[in-house]
Amino acid sequence: MDHAAEAQRTDLMTITRHVLNEQSKHPEAHGDFTILLNHIVLGCKFVCNAVQKAGLAKLLGLGGETNVQGEAQKKLDVLSNEVFVKALISSGRTCILASEENEEAIFVEPSKRGRYCVVFDPLDGSSNIDCGVSVGTIFGIYMAKDKTNPTLDDVLQSGKNMLAAGYCMYGSACTLVLSTGNGVNGFTLDPSIGEFILTHPDIKVPKKGKIYSTNEGNTKYWDEPTAKYVEKCKFPKDGSSPKSLRYIGSMVADVHRTLLYGGIFLYPADRKNPNGKLRVLYEVFPMSYLMEQAGGQAFTGKQQALELLPKKIHDQSPIFLGSYDDIEEIKSLYAAAEETKA
What we know:
This protein is α+β, with helices and mostly antiparallel strands. About 30% of the residues lie in helices and about 25% in strands. It is built from eight helices and 17 strands. The protein has an eight-stranded mixed beta sheet, with helices on both faces. It has a five-stranded mixed beta sheet with strand order 12-11-13-17-15, sandwiched between helices. Strands 1-2 form a two-stranded antiparallel ribbon. β9 (about 185-190) and β10 (about 195-200) form a beta hairpin. It starts with a helix and ends with a helix.
C-alpha cells in the first residue's frame, strides 16, 4: 500500500469542510446553516443512489399520480420528494418547505422548527430518467422573518434575498454546485468514501460563449426579440462563426454546461406559455443566483430575474441566463422592441 498516497487522500476539501470554513468567517454563526446544508447533502446522496439503481429497483415508469403542474409523476419523483422533505424537517432548522411536487407549502411543526425556508425541485428533468439523461435536484434557501410565526410571505421573497442556492446533478458523476453568496464551487461525489470533494473551485462563467441552448421546436411561438437572437446565433452578420446548439432538455444539465463552458440558456415566453414555463422559486431563482455569483447574468425579457417577486409558490417565468455579454445582447434586443412599440 502506498501510505503517502493514502494520507494525501485524507487531506481533501470535502463539502462539509468547505462549509465549516465559510462558517468560521462569520463569528456570529451558530452552525444552524451548516447543519441544514449537511441534511441537503445527505438527501442528494440518497437520491443519487436511488437514481443509479432505478432500473433494477423498478423505480422507473409512472407513479400513478400527477403533481400540481399536471405532469405525470415518476416513481423516482415521489421518492425524491419524500427524501428531501424528511431530511429537511429532521434537520430541525427549517420552518417552511416549498416543493415542486406539493401543491401547498409545508409548514414544519413548532417542535422541529428552525429559521430557514427551503424551496426545491426534488428531481428536475425526471421525464428523461428512462433514457439515461442527467437529472438533478435544485434548491434555494431563505431566512424567515420570524421562525415562531412563519407565513407564506417568508417564501414569496425576491431572489435577491436568497441566502444560498445550488443543484445536484445525477449523471456520469454526481456533482453538487453550491453558492452561499461568496462565489460558486462544484463538488463531485467520491463513491469510495461517500464524500463530496471540491473539484471545481470558484467557478466563473466565460464572459462570452459559443453555445446557445433552447428548444427550437417552439420557434413558431416565440416573440420577435427571441427569434432575432437565435437567428443571429445561427447566421451572425459580423463575420464571426455561428454558435453551436446544445440542448438536453434537463435544466440542471443544460445550466451546468452553460456555467462551465459559457453561452446562453433560454426558455422564453411564447404564445403557448405567455408567462414562461419554468418555476420562479425553485428553478429560475436558484439557477439565476448561481449564474450571477459566477459572473454571468439572468434576465426574464423584462427585468433581472432575481428582482422578480412571486405571488404564488408555483409561479412561472421566462428565463435567459448565461455569459454576461450574451445576456447583454438579448437585453438590447428586448429594449429595441420596447422602443419600437413606444
